[in-house]
Design a protein that fits this description.
heterodimer; A: 327 residues; mainly alpha; ABC transporter involved in vitamin B12 uptake, BtuC; 2 strands; B: 516 residues; alpha/beta; Rossmann fold; 4 domains; 19 helices; globular
């Protein structure tokens, strides 16, 4: 103890060891349990096409959940994402009436998402307003514009090749949406866990003042995260509109809470600073499997939301209770 | 309550009575670190025991064990000679152990009495709070510590010193037999310190056992009866304070002789590196103009509120200036954010380590590399091996004490956190390093280490700006001093003109030396 220079080891616990003890391992157990329960509960569950259908329950929400996870880890939130879907879908629907083709529609969907994200990001990072207030406001604003444009009408008449995004299959039962989600998940995982940008996101979420004092461009990072959330909402809007084949102003209504639920279930701290993309991806599967299993059993939607709520609370409460009991 | 305990606790004989509370052979382990190793501590009725040790020696761990926050991994606690355990803070409180912390949380909108009794107020019928009894008891406690405070007043109407007394009254509102004071004078003025000493005498006379933790040797020798010294989690000595000298105590504490407080250095001042011209802010400061050279240590002295930190934070890009220019190596640059400052070789070690200096939940290596990721990464992608290498290089130069580089910075002691902040900035290879109160709240041993390190940095050609409110530190370290008063430069003093009198005179705005 007396010598003044000592060797400090890099790590006492290997990253693998840490993963094995992690939240993600627990979630995988939950996912497996739900999968087994579903296959016992319904004879139709273990069918490749049914399982493929099951993925549509969560892929669009999960795409947004990826970007939402980064936002929440950075200590911000975007509750306007479902309304961005509505506005982007409405804009695409309106463009169809002017004969815009599929590539044009995609650009409009992505563009509206980016513009909405930039608007949120501007209000939060430049004006310095709290994101929860800003995005509750833009949640009403964006969907409100859809209602003004559509009233109780719907836009239809999307070009036939536009249907591929929400209804197409890449290989056998593997849908385009599922492949797109997988690619986006890998991109988000690399961005968060393997880049300087991701490190800055964690630093900001843990201590925004300390991050600023360490030379991190905090406002720029947050602005990019709002842009990313808007872009993901734009992509989800393209997939969802393509899958439904029509646009109503109530499209994706209430999705923001399901998306936040997915993120929190995935082990992201709602206070910011911790969480992983892997956790969010597993949580997306858990939620998708649960809702699909209940659907096969003809459980009504209102009961489904009760089950999802109970699942969220119990998965979050149980480890904490267990720790308390262990002392 | 306070008055009653007076009679039945004053032991028959002073000298070596039975300790009220004793730790014997206590060990406390944290992952990878032995915070306490087989230490003993005995607190006697009516006596003040000073607990002395460097930062990270295990003082706060002992306090947390005594107050039931931590559980020891080995050894025993005895109360009046009987073994006891404190599984919760409530159990420690019930046994009469109370602690006065540096920053007790108080509530502005509640009355003084409510603050004192929050959580254990006297109850009347139906379990409702008996306000009259609470006011009476609060008045008794306040009188007992000689505080002239009306218990019905709201806390927000009191001054800082009286708020501190309310915090003490709160600690004494449980029927305390053991009072732990953790650096109680750190935030007090000289008058208030005298009042605190009087209070300690009162508590002694009431037969309470007092554990007094302090970095200030003058106060230890003034009020303590006994001493206990910890070093690196081990007990290195204890006994009566009358049988020890200050030098012996320091030697026990740091394990070596600390003969000189400030390093002797021969300044090797080179070319001009930084020139600041006409820096101004709408409200905090104006007309700040100076130059800084390689190898130079420039001191900034001033009273609290003179605008020194505000100016430094503007120079570092945290707050926006309303005017002025910064020139580095002859090139004028526009600093609009800390990122701009770091990119131009200006770095800032803030006074508030926990909030501004570090990101507590992130591991040491990530804190160190945070501003240097551009160098450790490859086109934006992290390279962990490079990060560990960089973090190791700089933390080992600073003799960091930690279980591993993967340990969260928040788990380290204050002195070691400061080393992480300095390592973080040195890793960016800066030209100018600004140190804001670099030794505030750290012990003598660490202070000397920081001073020696500052001297070494200057010797290697780094330009150092040191903001300090301690006159000996300013005089002992600086080659030149700028004194600030009310947001303006009151004086710029060369080594020849630097005396305690000139510093104080310019800082306080006294034009001529007072007639003798």
């Amino acid at each position: 103890m007396t010598d003044r220079t000592r060797f400090i080891p890099d790590r006492l616990q290997s990253p693998l060891e840490r993963h094995l003890k992690s939240w993600e391992s627990l979630l995988i157990l939950v996912a497996v349990a739900v999968f087994i329960a579903n296959s016992f509960a319904s004879p139709y569950f273990l069918n490749a096409w049914n399982l493929s259908d099951a993925t549509f329950n969560f892929t669009e929400k999960a795409m947004i959940a990826l970007a939402m996870a980064l936002l929440i880890i950075s200590g911000e939130i975007d509750l306007s994402v479902a309304s961005i879907i509505a506005l982007a879908s409405t804009a695409m629907g309106a463009a169809v009436q002017f004969g815009v083709d599929t590539p044009g529609l995609v650009l409009i969907g992505l563009g509206v998402g980016l513009i909405c994200g930039a608007f949120n990001g501007f209000l939060v990072t430049v004006m310095g307003l709290p994101s929860i207030v800003v995005t509750i406001g833009t949640m009403s604003l964006f969907r409100g514009i859809s209602y003004i444009m559509l009233g109780d009408q719907a836009y239809r008449g999307y070009p036939p090749d536009f249907a591929f995004f929400g209804q197409g299959y890449v290989f056998w039962v593997i849908s385009f949406e599922f492949v797109l989600f997988a690619i986006l998940a890998v991109i988000h995982a690399i961005l968060l866990h393997k880049t300087n940008f991701g490190r800055a996101v964690y630093a900001i979420g843990n201590n925004p003042t300390g991050a600023l004092f360490s030379g991190i461009r905090v406002a720029r990072v947050k602005f990019i995260l709002f842009l990313l959330a808007g872009l993901m909402a734009g992509i989800a809007a393209i997939c969802l509109t393509s899958r439904l084949g029509s646009t109503r102003p109530s499209i994706a209504f209430g999705w923001e809470l399901e998306i936040v639920t997915m993120v929190v279930l995935g082990g992201v701290s709602i206070l910011g600073g911790s969480g992983s993309i892997l956790g969010v991806v597993i949580a997306a599967f858990v939620m998708g499997l649960v809702t699909f299993g209940l659907g096969l059993l003809n459980v009504p939607g209102i009961v489904m939301s009760i089950v999802i709520g109970a699942l969220l609370i119990s998965v979050i409460a149980l480890p904490r209770l267990w720790q308390t009991w262990r002392g | 309550m306070l008055m009653q305990s007076e009679t039945d606790l004053s032991g028959p004989s002073k000298g070596n009575a039975i300790p009220v509370i004793a730790l014997e052979g206590v060990t406390k382990l944290f992952p990878g670190v032995k915070a306490l190793s087989d230490v003993s501590l005995r607190l006697y009725p009516g006596q003040v025991t000073a607990l002395v040790g460097e930062n990270g020696a295990g003082k706060s761990t002992v306090v947390k064990i005594l107050t039931g926050i931590y559980q020891p991994d080995g050894g025993s606690i005895t109360l009046d000679g009987t073994a006891i355990a404190f599984p919760t803070p409530q159990a420690a409180g019930a046994a009469g152990v109370t602690a006065i912390h540096q920053e007790t949380v108080l509530f502005d909108e509640l009355s003084v009495a409510e603050n004192i009794f929050l959580g254990h107020a006297p109850r009347g019928r139906f379990g409702l709070i008996d306000t009259a009894a609470m006011m009476d008891q609060a008045a008794d406690i306040l009188r007992g510590i000689g505080a002239a405070i009306d218990p019905t007043h709201k806390l927000k109407d009191l001054g800082i010193a009286n708020k501190h007394l309310v915090a003490i009254a709160r600690a004494l509102s449980i029927d305390a037999r053991v009072v732990i004071m953790d650096e109680p004078t750190a935030a007090l003025s000289q008058n208030e310190i005298e009042e605190l000493y009087a209070l300690v005498e009162t508590l002694k006379a009431q037969g309470k056992a007092i554990l007094f933790i302090s970095h200030k040797f003058d106060e230890i020798f003034r009020i303590a009866d006994r001493y206990t010294v910890f070093r690196d989690g081990e007990l290195v000595g204890d006994g009566m304070i009358s049988a020890v000298t200050e030098a012996e105590l320091v030697k026990m504490m740091v394990g070596r002789d600390v003969s000189q407080i400030f390093p002797t250095r021969t300044p090797n001042i080179g070319d001009e590196v930084l020139a600041v011209k006409g820096y101004a802010h709408p409200t905090e400061f104006a007309d700040i103009t100076f130059t800084l050279h390689r190898g130079e240590i420039l001191g900034f002295y001033g009273l609290v509120g003179a605008g020194r930190s505000e100016f430094m934070q503007a120079l570092f890009g945290i707050t926006r200036r309303s005017g002025g220019t910064t020139t580095i190596d002859g090139t004028t640059i526009d600093i609009r954010s800390p990122a701009d400052a770091v990119a131009n070789g200006i770095v800032y070690v803030p006074e508030d380590r926990g909030r501004q200096g570090t990101i507590g939940a992130l591991p040491i290596f990530q804190n160190v590399t945070l501003p240097s990721l551009g160098r450790t990464s490859h086109s934006g992608f992290l390279r962990l091996a490079e990060e560990f290498k960089l973090a190791r290089d700089y933390t080992e130069r600073l003799d960091l004490r930690a279980a591993s580089l993967d340990t969260p910075v928040g788990n380290l002691s204050g002195g070691n956190q400061q080393k992480v902040v300095i390592a973080k900035w040195l890793a960016t290879q800066p030209k100018v390093i600004i140190l804001d109160e670099p030794t505030k709240g750290i012990d003598i041993g660490s202070k000397a280490a920081v001073h020696a390190f500052m001297a070494e940095l200057a010797a290697q050609g780094l330009a150092v700006i040191m903001v300090s409110s301690e006159i000996p530190e300013v005089l002992g370290m600086s080659d030149r001093v700028i004194v600030m008063r009310e947001g303006r430069m009151a004086a710029e003093l060369d080594a020849d003109d630097m005396t305690p009198e000139t510093l104080v005179r310019h800082a306080a705005g006294i034009k001529e030396a007072p007639p003798c």
